[in-house]
Amino acid sequence: MDEKFVTIYKTIGENLRDQRKEKNLSQQQLADLAGKIDRSKISDIENGKEDFLFSTLLKICAALDMNANDLFKNNK
Prior knowledge:
The chain has helices at residues 6-22, 27-34, 39-46, 54-64. The protein is mainly α. It is built from four helices and no strands.
């Protein structure tokens, strides 16, 4: 992963985790809803450790019924 983008990856991960927890979903449940995504990939994305495909991000957003734009907002 390019070090220039670590902050945005962490922001995206934190926002995904917050939304998943708000919907009372485990990482495995989210992975199942998003389709063909490993639970470990969900964990890595949430922890800002995964350089993911945009299509993967869109699948996760759809599973969480959220707008992808909301992932980029720094809520802290």
